[in-house]
């Protein structure tokens, strides 16, 4: 997997003509997400995800929905900074309530992921076949490396805020 990350010519040489939802999910928990997506397609609005409620915004980053995860982290960091700077009960309460983003992730994470994957499948239909290999490598599966970087970066940010 890491070889493909660094060797972009190998990604370009993949001969892919169609990309499906299952392809974009990747091998990690494919069966779980296919079942969850079937429930969502049948009309269920919420399909609970234990991993998403535990990891919250980092689950979004892991599943390559980086923008949404970063927004959640930024929201919490701003409120945490205000809580620490003012030491006001209202900001401390707001910071504690900001962890509801984790609850949101648990209840709506699968729906958000489904919407992202369906959008990517639609986008892949308009991409020339010679570029689908790169698209597939860039958009499919999970990204543990970037998630780890965000976790370390967030811990560092909180440490700087607390110890300055």
Automatic annotation (TrEMBL):
The chain crosses the membrane at residues 65-84, 90-107, 142-163. InterPro entries: DUF2628. Keywords: Membrane, Transmembrane, Transmembrane helix. Pfam families: DUF2628. This is DUF2628 domain-containing protein.
């Amino acid at each position: 997997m890491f070889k493909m990350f660094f060797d972009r010519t190998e990604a370009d040489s993949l001969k892919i003509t169609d990309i499906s939802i299952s392809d974009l999910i990747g091998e990690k928990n494919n069966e779980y997400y296919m079942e969850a997506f079937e429930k969502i397609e049948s009309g269920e609005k919420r399909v609970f995800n234990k991993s998403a409620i535990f990891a919250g915004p980092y689950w979004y980053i892991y599943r390559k929905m980086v923008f949404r995860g970063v927004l959640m982290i930024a929201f919490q960091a701003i409120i945490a900074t205000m809580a620490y700077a003012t030491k006001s009960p209202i900001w401390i309460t707001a910071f504690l309530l900001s962890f509801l983003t984790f609850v949101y992730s648990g209840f709506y994470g699968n729906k958000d992921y489904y919407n992202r994957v369906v959008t990517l499948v639609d986008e892949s239909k308009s991409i020339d076949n010679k570029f689908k290999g790169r698209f597939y490598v860039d958009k499919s599966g999970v990204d543990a490396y970037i998630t780890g970087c965000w976790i370390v970066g967030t811990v560092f940010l909180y440490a700087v805020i607390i110890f300055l």
